[in-house]
Design brief:
single chain, 66 residues, mainly alpha, 3 helices, 56% helix
Length: 66
């Protein structure tokens, strides 16, 4: 996939749609499971048989949540 094709996914109006979907997913995760999306994503990966799940923050302020 060309770099320009990837970048256009994150331009209006799609960007607003993606952000709204992520916000709804976060709300669902909190309401139904009392968890953050990252916690559910890691659990799902482990349930699929993946034995190692690695993730990290890109910015120091992202570590404050958890």
């Amino acid at each position: 996939m060309r770099a320009t094709a990837v970048a256009t996914k994150f331009l209006a109006p799609r960007l607003a749609q993606y952000l709204a979907a992520v916000q709804r997913l976060g709300q669902l995760a909190r309401e139904r499971f009392g968890k953050r999306v990252i916690e559910l994503a890691v659990r799902w990966m482990l349930d699929q048989g993946i034995t190692t799940a690695l993730w990290g923050a890109r910015h120091p302020d992202q570590t404050a949540a958890g």
